[in-house]
Amino acid sequence: MSVAVDKTKLNKFVEKSATEWGAALGVLLTFAGDRLGLFKAMAGAGPLTPEELAGRTNTHPRIMREWLAAQAAGGIVTYNADSGTYELPQEHAIALIDENSPAYIAGAYQMITGLFKDEEKIIEAFKTGKGLGWGDHHHYLFQATERFFKPNYVANLTSSWIPALDGVEAKLKNGGGGAKVADVGCGHGSSTILMAKAYPNSKVIGFDFHKPSIEWARKEAEKESLKNITFEVAGSTDYSGDDYDLVTFFDCFHDMGDPAGAAKHVLQTLKKKNGSWMIVEPFANDKIEDNLNPLGRLSYSVSTVVCVPSSLSENGPALGAQAGEARIRDIVTGVGFSKFRRAAQTPFNLVFEAKP
């Protein structure tokens, strides 16, 4: 028995797919513009011909003509048909080149480009279920993660997230010795450095099991001449020290091979009286159907190729980037934390506070 095909639905799906093909290739082209400094050359320069842009950037004019046309079709630059020139709007320039802006998005293009370089490893993970460890990805992922997340931390960490915690900000600012902070899963250390700069009276230690990231973080801290910060290679279940006033996990809890073990270790290393654990996670609702939107699609997609394989590589529960508040609460309270609450949120993150 044949099944009737709705040709209108079929055609709409094919049209949608064509849009996605252009967007997928657009990621590569936009990252090329980032690497070659094309957007920086266009920012504030007004209308430019392909030849003028090529001259400014030491690139080939014929390829610049095609690149600019593709960027114009994607709405990244604008095209003036009368003059044959292209222009980068100021607002787009902020998002693409201003690393100090909370709207800075260039890191996302590098991240996606890097994940395509891991195609064979990802396919193998799909087939075997053995996972793909964080450190086994292309180095673009480590660089891009910092570039992508840092603007959000700059915009929110010390201005709204830490102030939302119970009495933590006052301890961090205390001139009588400040507080002791462990930043676990710190990666390239952008969150660690932000806290060390904002709270010079406190001691901040960044931990990550990925040695190249810790080496990167140390070099970045040296550039800032910070005296109250150190970095150590260590995992979430065995990092050193105790009696911490604050332990922080930024966008990493759901990736871990043993999140319950990590939670237990935090409980053991945190001050029993008024210690706080801040867990920053991607924004997610508890039900799948409530996450079926553009942000949810992005999170599920990255989670499929990064977060879930990372946890599976350590025989973990593979919480995924859309784990949601209820699931995280169950793990945290299940190991003995008596208090758990949503302290703050943004369109992209949920910020939880747990206390012994």
Question: Key terms for this structure?
Answer:
Methyltranfer_dom; alpha/beta; 356 residues; 7-stranded mixed β-sheet; Methylase involved in ubiquinone/menaquinone biosynthesis; Arc Repressor Mutant, subunit A; Rossmann fold; transferase; WH_DNA-bd_sf
Number of helical stretches of at least 4 residues: 14
Oligomer: single chain
**The CATH class of the largest domain:** Alpha Beta
Indicate how many domains the architecture comprises.
2
Give an overview of the whole structure:
The protein is of the alpha/beta class. The protein folds into two domains: 7-97, Orthogonal Bundle (Arc Repressor Mutant, subunit A), CATH 1.10.10; 149-287 and 315-355, Rossmann fold, CATH 3.40.50. It is built from 14 helices and nine strands. Strands 5-4-3-6-7-9-8 form a seven-stranded mixed sheet, sandwiched between helices. Strand 3 (180-184), helix 10 and strand 4 form a beta-alpha-beta unit. The relative contact order is 0.09.
List the SSEs and their pairings.
Layout: H1 7-36, H2 38-42, H3 50-57, H4 61-73, E1 78-80, E2 85-87, H5 90-97, H6 106-117, H7 119-128, H8 139-161, H9 168-173, E3 180-184, H10 190-198, E4 203-208, H11 211-223, E5 229-233, E6 246-250, H12 259-269, E7 276-282, H13 294-312, H14 325-334, E8 339-345, E9 349-355
Parallel strand pairs: 3-4, 3-6, 4-5, 6-7
Antiparallel strand pairs: 1-2, 7-9, 8-9
Helix pairs in contact: 1-6, 3-4, 6-8, 8-10
Q: Could you provide a short overview of the structure?
A:
The chain is of the alpha/beta class. It has helices spanning 7-36, 38-42, 50-57, 61-73, 90-97, 106-117, 119-128, 139-161, 168-173, 190-198, 211-223, 259-269, 294-312, 325-334; strands at residues 78-80, 85-87, 180-184, 203-208, 229-233, 246-250, 276-282, 339-345, 349-355. The strands form two sheets. Strands 5-4-3-6-7-9-8 form a seven-stranded mixed sheet, with helices on both faces.
